[in-house]
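Re: the 544-residue chain
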Amino acid sequence: MQFKNLTMSFGAQTIFENVNLNIPYDVKIGVVGGNGAGKTTLFKLLMGLEFADIGKIITKNGYRIDWLPQVISDDISNMNMEVLEYLMQGRPVEKLNVELQSLYDSLANSNSNQNEIFNKIEKVQKQLDYWDSYNAETTLFKIIDGVKLSDDILLKKINELSGGQKSKVAFAKLLYSNPEIILLDEPTNHLDEDSKKYVINYLKNYKGTVLIISHDVDFLDQVTTKTLFLDKRTKTFSLYDGNYSYFKKVQKEKDENILKQAQIQQQEEEKLREIINKYSSASGNRKRMAQDREKKLEKLLSNKIEVLSPNRKIKFNLNIERESSTIPLKIENLCFRYNKESSKNIIDNLNFELHRGEKFLVVGENGAGKSTLLKLIIGLLIADKGEIKIGNKTDMGYYAQELELLDNTKTILENFRDTSYSQKQLRNILAKFLFLGNDVYKNVGILSPGEKSRVALAKLSISGANLLLLDEPTNHLDPETQYLIADVFKDYQGTMIVVSHNPDFVDNLGIERILILPTGEISYYDRETVEQYKILNKQRRKGL
């Protein structure tokens, strides 16, 4: 793969400029860079979903590129197709076998040029060999077992799956489809430890090029042998030998050297300006000295090293507009199923109530109904049976796991038109979430999942809600931001229901009780309980 004079910008903001780089084949590469450096944009360029302003990306003729995005697209999410059927589409073995049989039939019944038919047969057979047609089904079921997709999930329709299940299914199909180049954007978000170990081993032995964006340092270190750094300062790319941890050591030394050079330049600049200011109005030799120093200053400034200021952090509060009633939410005998012809409920006879100011955690395997429960409470789904009683002073705010409440066709600013805030107030609010200047006019559709998460958090921050429904709020955020929002949610004075598989995150929230789905069991929170439940899940998946 080759990047040739690659330049990409959004409006007046240049993301990267005049990038020239060769990416070798059959390597595993971690793609790193600060927020806004263009990591997800690069993946979209490689997939043909975005187009460069200048330059091009050259890949070997016939090489296929496929990817796992952070957020599964609506095209997949809305499919009314069984999971197993969808997975089997990863390799066109059945179609090629039909084509091969048709060619053999033509060979027996046709008087036309048989050499041409033989050439076509050879071409189809090569494709079948590439797809390992005789072992394809076995390979698929090994992948299914590896990523822990149960038989129940295989028989479900894709549009019945939870967000985590959709991601696992999309990941399994990607691995099965065996492209020459794989792009993975935060691939471990929905993987348990067993699935993660399987994927690590799979990728290590994968014959092809893999590019990975991830905040999971352990995953990057185990899989990658090179690191592609998207430098926000220079707007260029650099390819380093070594995994992420090795890159960080090298980059730290490089940053320290750059800082030293910048400090030397700054001292030199100050000396030159001092002489110019002192002698610019003089005459004779002193005047010529000042003119000489002006030329040196001009040259220095044209080659001045830019040192980026430390990454800004988002800074916000979650304030409630009014106090809720003592019992803001009560669930009675709640039942729901996606397939109305089935007798099996995903939510079955669920009962609980929340007390004002309580922090309530919902846990369970993917597909156990966690996201479904939040959607029922907020009104995006309608229960088949039972009641959801909302207190008369309850104001709800909802953070959706798949960020589907944002309008991708509108700008960031336009996504806040349903609020009573002025444009000036909104710009001040968005600045706290690191959307500065013309950033607010970007279409949400071109944002990275991490940036979309910040938009969703910004909307939540001005909701004034006294009951928050949070569905995997840390999925697309870097660790530093995760810790920051954990502190904000910990200080939140309202009531909270949070779905999360991130024990480090929920440990900081002040959780009081845990709801375990699908059983409906409720227990008091402690980390040991969560860890025991994770072990129980693993035992169930292994059939112990």
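The longest helix spans residues 244-279.
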